[in-house]
Design a protein that fits this description.
Keywords: Signal. This is HEAT repeat protein. InterPro entries: Galactose-bd-like_sf. The protein has eleven helices and twelve strands. It is α+β, with helices and mostly antiparallel strands and about 400 residues long. The chain has three domains: about 120 residues, no CATH class; about 60 residues, no CATH class; about 180 residues, Jelly Rolls (Sandwich). The strands form three sheets. Strands 4-1-6-11-8-9 form a six-stranded antiparallel sheet, with no helix packed on it.
Length: about 400
């Protein structure tokens, strides 16, 4: 009896040591993959680690998912490949850990793309997960998750309309709109709502900034002004007057009624070819937070936040669309000053006449972030917003 007990304990210890060793090996393989450089440093070692990690048992799946939270673009691609190899083999052997995958999906602190990948594999093992999880993801950080949740509500609302239940249709469309961040879905919601007599404030829904102080034109003949630091880049003084392209220019306050927030500089400025205008506004944030500034324009542009240059793009007339450019920045608590430089060249083609922009503030999923005060955008930016290169 004592002999059997000793054998049992020895076997248990051996199994435990094997599991610990396996976990340590997985951690080391993942670490090797994560160390690969953007220029290929460590590529050979990482490639070998991916091959070995791809042969792991299903227990490694969660470790790979967690590693994706902090992985760079290159190592993330390799980790996703290893995950799918392990998951496919586990699925074929009816060993895909559905509970582990579901727990990861439900934890919104994890990386959205990794959560989506885990969710798609979860469905292969448990198709019922869609009905259980997606309805709760209307405002999920994952754009794909919330898109699925919105789509379900749109379908339900359409059925209510077909059945003549207008009140239920309105309620369901309104619920869908709370989570909708993609323009195609927003349009699919707003159109029937308007037909049902409802009004929708798209400026507020998307978080468009519609009040700006504008000054210009400054010279951009032969596109030479993009890198020129005109006075608004040195100071934002709304009472100041400067020498512009064809005489004195000063700041003027404007707003747009366009439901998609389009701000037409060409209507405000003459001449509007070979010219540059600046637009400044204030955004009051209740706290410090990371955001995305999303810009649509067919013109060259630069963007500053609180005096720091965030991004610049010197490209003209390649089309304009909603959320064409996405720039991340960090709002500080209280007043934040935004400055936008928008440049127009001298092309004469009909398709090269647009000189406008649309600008909004949102979280990383595209949900609007509104200023703490409704009048904040029109308040005068003060000296602390002075731009710096």
């Amino acid at each position: 009896m004592k002999h059997c007990s000793w054998l049992f304990m020895s076997l248990a210890c051996a199994l435990l040591m094997t599991a610990v060793a396996s976990a340590a090996e997985t951690d080391q393989l993942i670490a090797t993959i994560q160390q690969v450089g953007q220029r290929g440093e460590g590529h050979e070692q990482a490639s070998a680690a991916v091959r070995e990690l791809s042969e792991s048992d299903p227990a490694a799946l969660r470790d790979i998912l967690v590693a994706l939270d902090s992985a760079g673009p290159l190592s993330a691609n390799w980790l996703r490949g290893a995950f799918e190899a392990v998951a496919q083999r586990a699925l074929e052997n009816d060993a895909l850990p559905a509970e582990t995958l579901e727990a990861y999906v439900l934890d919104r602190s994890h990386e959205p793309r990794a959560r989506r990948m885990a969710y798609e594999w979860l469905l292969k093992a448990d198709p019922s997960a869609e009905d259980r999880l997606i309805p709760e993801m209307l405002e999920d950080p994952s754009g794909e998750m919330r898109r699925d949740a919105v789509a379900r509500l749109i379908t339900a609302a359409e059925q209510f309309l077909e059945d003549g239940e207008d009140v239920k249709a309105k309620t369901t469309y309104r619920q869908a709109l709370k989570g909708a961040v993609d323009d195609d879905q927003v349009k699919a919601i707003v159109k029937p709502l308007k037909e049902l007599g409802e009004t929708v404030d798209l400026q507020r829904h998307f978080g468009f900034v519609t009040n700006w102080h504008v000054i210009g034109p400054f010279d951009n003949t032969e596109m030479k002004g993009f890198d020129v630091s005109y006075p608004p880049e040195e100071e934002i003084d709304l009472s100041a007057r400067y020498d512009g392209k064809e005489g004195e220019v000063r700041w003027e306050e404007y707003s747009t009624d366009d439901e998609y927030g389009t701000f037409d500089i060409a209507e405000l400025t003459s001449p509007y070819k070979g010219a540059i205008s600046y637009a400044a506004t204030e955004f009051v944030s209740p706290d410090g937070r990371e955001v995305e500034f999303r810009l649509g324009t067919a013109n060259a542009w630069k963007l500053w936040l609180n005096g720091e240059l965030l991004f610049a793009r010197e490209e003209y007339h390649r089309g304009k669309q909603l959320d064409q450019y996405r720039v991340r920045g960090t709002l500080k608590p209280g007043r934040n000053v935004l400055l936008l430089k928008v440049c127009q060249n001298e092309q004469t083609e009909s398709w090269a006449q647009d000189w406008d922009f649309q600008f909004r503030v949102c979280d990383f999923s595209g949900k609007a972030i509104l200023p703490a005060r409704s009048d904040s955008a029109s308040r005068e930016p003060r000296e602390e917003g002075k731009p710096k290169s």
